[in-house]
Amino acid sequence: MKKMVAWMLIAYATLLMVGEKLRSHLYPKHSRKSKVFSGAFVFPKVNPKISPQEFRRVVASVRDTFRSIVSPV
Length: 73
What we know:
The chain has a domain at 44-73. It is 74% helix and 0% strand. It is built from four helices and no strands. Helix 1 (2-26) packs across helix 4. It is globular. It starts with a helix and ends with a helix.
């Protein structure tokens, strides 16, 4: 049970980080929409239209951030 909860939290954290990075990529910092959508809610509400290359860059950036959090060495 503890492992399942741990995996769910890791999945949620990953989705949240990808959503936040995608939101900052799609909308300017002072845009109204940047305040409306948050983290995981970017995917179902916005249906982002970006190229696969841009999405891979966003995911790679999040992966690097996640790695630095999990193993800071």
